[in-house]
Amino acid sequence: MTVKEKVGQLNQKMYGWEAYKKTDKGIELTEAFKEQVALGDGMGALYGLFRSDPWSAVTYENGIPTHENAKVANRIQRYIIENTRLGIPVLLSEECPHGHQALDGTLIPTNIGAGSTWNPELMEKAYQFVAAEVRSRGAHLGLISTLDILRDPRWGRSEECYSEDPYLAAKMTEAAVKGLQGEGREELIQDNKIVAVLKHFAGQGEGQGGHNAGPANIGERELREIHLPGMKAGVEAGALGCMAAYNEIDGIPCHANTTLLTDILREEWGFEGMVMADGVAIDRLRQLAGDYESAAALALSAGVDLSLWDTAFTTLEQAVEKGKTTEEWIDRAVRRVLHLKFALGLFDQPYTDETKALQIVGNESFRKTNLQVARESAVLLKNQDQLLPLSKQTGKIAVIGPNANQIYNQLGDYTAIQKDGKGTTLLQGIKNMAEGEVTYVKGCSVRGKSKAGFPEAVAAAKNSDVVILVLGGSSMRNFDLEFDSNGAAIVSNNPTDMDCGEGVDLADLKLGGVQEQLVKEIAATGKPIVTVLIQGRPHAITDIVDDCDAILCGWYPGQEGGQALAEIIFGEVNPSGKLPVSLPRSSSQLPVYYNQKDQGRELQYIDSPGTPLFSFGYGLSYTQYEYSNLQISPVDITLKQVNEGTPIEVQIDVKNIGQLAGAEVVQLYIKDMEASITRRVKELKGFQKIWLEPNEQKTVTLQLSKEELAIWNPEMKFVVEPGNIKIMVGNDSTNTVETILTLE
Fold first, then answer.
1. One-character DSSP codes across 580-615
2. Neighbouring residues of 251: CB distance < 8 A, sequence distance ≥ 6
3. CA distance linking residue 226 with residue 678, whole number of Å
């Protein structure tokens, strides 16, 4: 290969939606695309050929119809293969953080909802469907947010995080990899699997001030304990893709962090895949390096293999000529990109069956799985006097609020343009199930200050038997927004209800606009209130929690969310979701995550409790569960036994003592009572979701091994230390039964 051809394999310069245009003759490849192919005598990857949203401005009018997706993908491949010397196929990369961001793509609940299911097996099944949809269209790489840990809910990308906890997030990451890629490398050549590109590596959830891409001012121990377990689990599950994060860690940008991208990722963990840059992130390194060539050299040597929209990597040939980098560094990255193309079988079969997409995209099996994810992602926070479930025969129901009948508000960021009528809003779900009279009033918007809708809302409440308030936030982009060079929304001074999503960070976690005031006026009617929160982050609802008789957190529940939440409200489904993140009382008490360092005292403020409003792992059911007979075996174990792989079995009996069948999440926490470094007040180290019929009892067995018991000691070695460890098992992080394990 010439240096030019090698550099071409490392570039993903253009936006995919600029590679084609609709004409009277059909869809044609653009001159801009052909120029990009000529620029590198080939192309490493093409991003977002099927992306649709206000940033790309791709709609049903100008986008590629689903039935033509594979045909256009094949035309892209054919042009590159036939018009370059070596004929190397291109990788097509697509966004799929909660389903494929393409026209007709199936959108599942966002990650914060997926984390609330505490059901990796269900999520693996959902990601299998996502992979099949993406591959049937002709694409190969799925960019999926799995690595960000939600340490500051002011961050706009909170919705993309599975949890504030590394163990839960790692289990969900493993599920995503297995779902998208399959169980082994050999499955990748199948026509229903894609490479999982896990993002963002690493520490992005610790951004200073909750700002997007803010500095992560943490040390190596915090990095390893909290932010690295997800990628490690991904590597062990076989992940072949990784995207570096925008942020810096202790002064070093991730895209220039050799310790992170090479020493830990590859040499310590054995990662054999490819590292992709985040959008224009390499160009941002000019702030350190001074020019494009030096920025490219810095990222390349650190371990970045493939660019994303950067100018810097297009200058690598000049960088070699000027002595800023070497051809050996380029060769290393090229091997990784080509390795991925071989693993996907593209050299043997670069083309896609053009008939499959219509059979696979949006099929009924995926819809049913999506519906089940939405059901299990909802968390019942409050149910005073067992107001829920409501009877379907309830005479008059007033449905009020900005998120009751807006489908985009329940889909999250990275959402494609939707066909009219696709998906089910909560209002539609309620109307489909209620046998009485249902009245709808919007009342107010998410962020607007107008109270013009209050009188109608109050009148509807007064004339009802029960009020369902549908509040929260929105990540709905619109065509009036401005966008940054990487597609992040710029909402300042723009007319939008968007209060969450990439680039949309909050200082105040209270519900936006006049929503709290709407609650107060509705509460003054004296009618019972069921509040449903449709949101992408944990909002602080302290000021309204006492006004509501029942509160159901639905997060962004996806296209089937309206039906799923209605089923819970009317008792067809027993809620089983558990919080994957602590819900704060206010922004002022952050950080409020459950696994803080133990300071040997209770952390309080004189003007507010130090505890969250709702704790990590919390979630109510329509039935009750009883925990008893906690046992561990062996009670005493030597370090030698643990290091040799002997597991500790933790058993507990769980009984459904209520009148309804339901699913319960059994949660295992530990607290290291004696250690050479400060430990956390508790740490999740195991969980299992079980189904129990009324009066049924099951014995649940969870295991602890070296991986769960070891700590990073003062010498930064991962070791198990002697001493006592408190074992806690229960239905959330605060309601547990306890015993002691002794490591001798």
1. SS-B-S-GGG----S-PBP-SS----SSS-SS-SB-
2. 215
3. 14
Q: Is residue 743 within a helix (H) or strand (E), and if so which, with residue range?
A: strand 736-743
Short-list 341, 321, 467, 376, CA closest to 10: 341
pLDDT of the residue at 487 = 86
**CA-to-CA dists, residue 323 to 5, 317, 326, 329, angstroms:** 19, 10, 7, 12
Tokens read off for 584:
């704060």
Q: CA 6 to CA 23: how far, in whole Å?
A: 34
What pLDDT digit, counting tens, does each position of 582-619 carry?
999 999 999 999 999 999 888 889 999 999 999 999 99
Token couple for 421: 């009528």
Taken as a whole, the chain contains a residue count of 744
8 Å CB contact between 289 and 252: no
**Distance, CA of 536 to CA of 555 (rounded, Å):** 6
Q: Which amino acid is residue 395, in one-letter code?
A: G
Instruction: Report how far residue 169's alpha carbon sits from residue 156's, in angstroms, rounded to the nearest whole number.
Output: 18
354-383 burial, b at 16+ Cβ within 10 Å, e below that, comes to bebbbebbbeeebeebbbbbbbbbbbbbbb
Quote the CA–CA distance of 112 and 536 in Å, as a whole number: 7
Task: For residue range 619-663, list pLDDT tens digits in order.
Answer: 999 999 999 999 999 998 999 999 999 999 999 999 999 999 999
User: What's the CA gap between 669 and 630, in Å, rounded?
Assistant: 13
CB 480 within 8 A of CB 498: no
